[in-house]
Design a protein that fits this description.
This protein is mostly helical. It has two domains: 1-80, Tetracycline Repressor, domain 2 (Orthogonal Bundle); 81-214, Tetracycline Repressor, domain 2, CATH 1.10.357. The chain contains ten helices and no strands. The chain has helices at 4-34, 41-48, 52-58, 62-75, 87-93, 98-126, 131-158, 168-178, 181-190, 195-210. Helix 2 (41-48) packs across helix 3. The longest helix is centred in the N-terminal third of the chain and has 31 residues, at 4-34. The radius of gyration is 20 Å and the shape is elongated. The model has no long low-confidence stretch (mean pLDDT 94).
Length: 214
């Protein structure tokens, strides 16, 4: 016999998920169009076709909306699976050749930049006017830098591919700067580079600045 209560619970959960995605999608579009200061919770509610109360109960305030919009854009979905465990990054992590690893990494960064660069710039602007947004931005930037230390730099050292004249901390700083979504935004969204051009430039720059010659 079908458990009607379980079925009903699944329907409510699915509806809540769809509502949250609808709200986050509306917020993302408004943040990109109007910026953080110009986007209100009421505007998000109107765009999503829900009440102001529903926005707060489903997601939260403006910073929570921006955080979730960024998370969803980074992942490409609302699955809670961490980025490091997703296939694209797993391919980068498990590539045995450092030079091929840079090629894959550059492709990953380019794809991520396409999805998140504009929202990243919104968050960076929000950090200048909102303490909660500043805390989030500063924490993410620190985590992003640590990811360079624990990820590619450690791999390059282990594979004996790091430039001999480059300290590990300097290598992490260079990568942290190069792969920032703001770098993609400046060159692609503002200067009109194609994704293919950006990816080639990023790959060539990382190889020349971080890796030892083959």
């Amino acid at each position: 016999m079908t458990d009607k209560r379980a079925y009903s619970s699944e329907l409510r959960t699915d509806q809540a998920r769809r509502t949250r995605m609808q709200i986050v999608a509306a917020a993302a579009a408004l943040f990109v169009e109007r910026g953080f200061a110009g986007t209100t919770v009421d505007a998000v509610a109107d765009a999503a076709g829900v009440s102001r109360k529903t926005v707060f109960t489903s997601v939260g305030g403006k910073v929570q909306l921006l955080k979730l919009a960024y998370d969803f854009a980074m992942a490409g979905d609302d699955d809670p699976l961490p980025m490091v465990k997703r296939e694209a990054l797993q391919q980068v992590i498990h590539e045995p050749d450092a030079y091929r690893q840079v090629e894959l990494f550059s492709g990953f960064v380019t794809g991520a930049g396409r999805r998140i660069a504009r929202l990243y710039m919104v968050l960076r602007g929000a950090a200048e006017v909102d303490p909660e947004a500043k805390d989030l931005f500063d924490r993410w930037e620190a985590e992003r830098h640590q990811a360079m230390v624990d990820g590619p730099v450690r791999d390059f050292v282990r594979k004996k591919a790091l430039r001999a004249d480059l300290k590990r901390a300097e290598a992490a700083d260079i990568l942290w700067f190069l792969v920032a979504p703001s770098t993609y935004h400046r060159l692609v969204n503002e200067r009109g580079w194609s994704d293919a051009r950006f990816r080639r430039w990023l790959e060539e720059t990382i190889r020349s600045q971080v890796l030892a010659p083959r």
